[in-house]
Amino acid sequence: MSTRQLSGLRTRWSAIGAAVAVSLGAGGFGLASAAIDSGDKPVTVTVDAKRILDTRTNIGLSGRFADATPRELQVTGDVPVAPSGTETVVPNGATAVLVNVTVVFPSDPGFLALRSADATGEPSTSTVNFFPGTVEPNAATVDLSSDGKIEIWLETSSDSGNAHVLVDVVGYTIDHTHDDRYYTEAEIDAGTALLQDSINSAVAPKANSADVYTKTGDCQIRGVTGLA
What we know:
- With 228 residues, this protein is an alpha+beta fold.
- The chain folds into two domains: 3-38 and 179-213, no CATH class; 39-177, Jelly Rolls, CATH 2.60.120.
- Helices cover 20% and strands 36% of the residues.
- The protein has three helices and eleven strands; from the N terminus they run H-E-E-E-E-E-E-E-E-E-E-E-H-H.
- The protein has helices at 3-24, 185-203, 209-213; strands at 39-54, 65-66, 71-74, 78-80, 86-88, 94-104, 110-116, 128-130, 135-143, 149-156, 162-178.
- Strands 1, 2, 6, 9 and 11 form a five-stranded antiparallel sheet that branches. A four-stranded antiparallel sheet has the order 3-10-7-8, with no helix packed on it.
- Helix 1 (3-24) packs antiparallel against helix 2.
- The longest helix is centred in the first third of the chain and has 22 residues, at 3-24.
- The chain is elongated.
């Protein structure tokens, strides 16, 4: 390989190294911190399903729900769980709970609404709709009150309507402090693309690359006057 070829290769790989160094920096792969949204952000934590309400067996609350008679259920901290005992399924400080809720053998058609215990007035949306004598499940994410409770509201077509209710916890959301070390998948993909563009630009052939990389010539090796 000639001296001009060696020089061309050194120039080429120096450019690649510079591009990688600029993109990676001293602290490893990173993105501009100005694009990162730091601070307290909710994260979702899943858990093995735990039943914290079963009015058939008086877990959580006792007896059937009555029409237009809302009741509060403690969700955070140490709570009763089925089949027996107590357990902390959702920690204090959680902001919402992920549940599977089931209405069992309602006496009349109607709906069940789950919401934060801080809510006021009558509910404007339903969580489960049902007909008499059925078993109707649904999944929901319910905001928690400041003291970790939800409100459960049964509404039926009859003033004497009633039903059993089950609630199984499958997860919760809780605030987590994020800093600039956390990136979304989209941000990482964007940073990777920028890095690849920098490398491609560094190694792309120039208009006169033939003059730099392909010309050959004599190469004098020190101390050697000739080769057999």
